[in-house]
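Input record (one chain):
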Amino acid sequence: MFRSIIGWSLDLTMTEQLNTDALNMAFSRREIGPGLIIHSDRGVQYRALKYQDVIRSKGGVVSMSRKGNCWDNAVMESFYSRLKVELIYAEQYHSIEEAKSGIFEYIEIFYNRLRRHSALGYVSPAEYERICV
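The corresponding structure, as predicted from the sequence alone:
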């Protein structure tokens, strides 16, 4: 696992389309092989048929956390915690466009390319992927 965020989307509400957009971004950035496992929590937007159909259309497998068990999705929960602490709580966004710009910069420039991760031997996800591939 490289710990890179490869697909993401932002909007004012959490919808099936929002998650499908993030999924399609991830699929456009990586070669997808049959058996790819897409894991999420049990949110209604992840249980939506359209979202799951996109996964299955690429030969993927839907995987969901056990009910009420945040530990099954610990890597993403950790990312959201870091995003909030390192970016969101320190900023005052006045529009969705400002928020998208800030989150884009955090994910695409800082988190994926610069932020060191102890789980990756204190290198960034991009560097770890470069070394491993």
